[in-house]
Each structure stands twice: as C-alpha cells, then as structure tokens.
Amino acid sequence: MGVKLSGKALAAKRMAAGLSQRELARRAAIDHRAVQYWENSTALDLYGYAVKRMVDALGWRISPHHYARARYGVLSDGEEAALFLDIIRAMPKRLAMALVAPRVKCGAKTRKGTPCRALSEPGRRRCRFHGGLSTGPRTKEGRNRIGAAQRLRWQASKRQ
To answer: CA nearest 38: which of 49, 65, 73?
Structure first.
C-alpha cells in the first residue's frame, strides 16, 4: 500500500537530512512551532501550506496516490486504481496522453532539408507542425487538382 505519511515520517526525513526543527522552519519560511505540530501529528495534511513548504524544503518527492489518500482517506488497491483512472479521465486529453505516452523528437524533413527538432504531440510521432495525415497528392489527377486550387488562391491574394 505504500508509506503512510505521518509526523514520524516527516521527522525521520528531517533527521536524515541532518536538520534541526528550527533549521527546517527557516528553510521552509514557516514558524518552528508548525514543524513541531506536524511532526507530532498522526497524519500529514498534504494540502496544508506548512506541510507543502516543509516537503519542498526537504526535497521530498510525494507520489500522486499519497495526495489521493490525503483527500479521500486510506483506500484499497482496487479503489486506488479506480480513483487514478477517474483522475486521468477528468484531465484534458492532452495532459492525460502526456502521462501515458512519451514525447519524442519529430524528425520530419523541414524546408531546409534538416530533421525537425520539435517534440511530438503526446501519443504521436510528429510535432504540431508536421502532424497531418496527408502526404500530398499521389496521382496525376490529384496533383493537377491541387495545382489548380493553388493557382486560384494566388490569383485571389494578388487581387487583394
């Protein structure tokens, strides 16, 4: 299930860093009594101002499921997985894809002939500039149709 984030865990992390309560309070820009209070508590409020400041000052990385536990209480593994999926579904698609699919270099050929160095869109292999599905017209009729459309556009832009 993971580590329960309690005052004892905070005190152990502080001592492992070789800091006194007052030194941690100074680094976190909070009062030393807040450090004393939270180290004597049974559970940390991860959404609290002082706790966030202490966690940042200690360089402590806390996983998202700890935040979910802080908000919703202790969950079983199944409930935790369901909650994580609900959180992912509630995110905009672009953010959810960034969690699931890594972004890679686009690599498409630019006008200069060099490979594109922009990062791909989440879940895709091409960047936002080169991400279209079209590879251009493949038949002679298609090339003629595109050429005619481009000539009409150029004539319209010249008139303006």
So the answer is: 49
